[in-house]
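Let us practice reading a record.
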Amino acid sequence: MDAANGHADAARENNDGDRRLVRPPADWFVLLERVTAEIAALLDNRRTWRDLQARGTALESEAAGTDNGWLAELYHRDAALGIRRMVDGDRRTGSFKRLLQKMAEEPRFLTEAWFLGDSTGAHHEDLAAAFREQADPLRFGHLNPAVPRADLAALSDRTAGIKCWVDQHITHAQLDPHSTQPPPSDIDAALDLLAELLEKYTSLLRPGGADLPGADGLTPGT
């Protein structure tokens, strides 16, 4: 069964005439798992770097010493590369951009009914309010495609300079580069946005936590 048929089957009526609960496609959870690991590693590296700076074993500017400047250069190049991976639009990649694109293309597979699950009472009301605020402000009953599109636009804007620099100076030896190395503040801003968006889409795709069955019986995070 190909992916298109598998997705269509999520909303197809079964032989008893009962409509199945629409579930997000399994590949969304695969992408979420991948970007979670990538972003967690980037944030962990940043914590280590900041700890080194706080303890005085790394410098805040290259003017204070060649060796420490070299270490700072390594950290920021690695962070820029990691950020670049998360905004890669190639369909063969497991990037945050691909996850947001897929969700914008097929928003009806993230429904409020699936998100609410078997919740009841106050918890049900809290979940419903959270879904409407984060995913469905116009009350479609499913993800508004404008939401992931807006988040993708914000992410693309925040990372444009980083992506351009990586493309011209790291992944390719461009003969006529026009970009300059992004300052540490740009790296931090991009990481902050990635962390914020990861928290948002994790809450949308794993409303019941890591043990909640996902699409097609897939358990998110496995």
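A brief commentary: The chain has eight helices and no strands.
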